[in-house]
Amino acid sequence: MLTIQAYLQDTFGYSDFQIGQIRYTVVSILSEASKLILMGFFFAYTQHFLQYVVAITVLLILRTCTGGLHFQHYISCLAVSFGIIYLGICQLPRIPFERPLYFIFLLVCVIINYLFSPVVSSYRPIPSGIRIQKSKRQSFCIITAYSLIMFVVPTNLYTVTGFWIILLQSFQLFVAKLIKKEDPK
To answer: Could you please report the per-residue DSSP string of 20-54?
Structure first.
């Protein structure tokens, strides 16, 4: 019986390293997709699905350029991801803020993201100086664009959810950078 690995090596001449990269990519995509689906079911069941869509959209856009905490096990990653999303959707939006405070906190988030991004997984190569600068500019632009959205759009449950997700992502980026400094592996 021909395995997928043997087929790829025989047909396309892929090395063991390239096969490993393909396997890592497929496992990562399936892992992330399953987490999104599981959390989606929960938030649909609890009548927070539209907030979940906003939260995930904001988180994915920001996290793809900044990185953050990374875990070696599926369950720990799912638990922390769920905790962040749950806080950003169900708990923290209950805290009332005066409108100017949102912008002050978003400015703090811009600074944190600029200083500490990107924090990549230990399974990925260390980014080049050009990639680091690009990441910093992207996070600056994303949070600034969100600030403009919050300035133009009246404060509502969805804009506040996105705000809290940015704040939580910035906090976990700060924590991830501290952990990475202590354990450079």
So the answer is: HHHHHHHHHHHHHHHHHHHHHHHHHHTT-HHHHHH
pLDDT in tens, 25-77: 888 899 999 999 999 999 999 999 999 999 999 999 999 999 888 888 999 99
Q: Which tokens hold the place of 78?
A: 């799912």
* Length of the chain in terms of residues written: 185
Q: What is the pTM of this model?
A: 0.87
Of 177 and 55, which is predicted with more confidence?
A: 55
Q: How far apart are CA 121 and CA 133, in angstroms?
A: 18
Dig out the tokens for 46 from the structure. 């609890």
For residue 67, report the phi and psi dihedrals to the nearest 5 degrees.
75, -150
Paired strand residues for 67 = 119
| Residue among 61, 48, 79 at smallest CA distance from 160 | 48
Residue whose entry in the numeric block shows the structure tokens 């809290």: 164
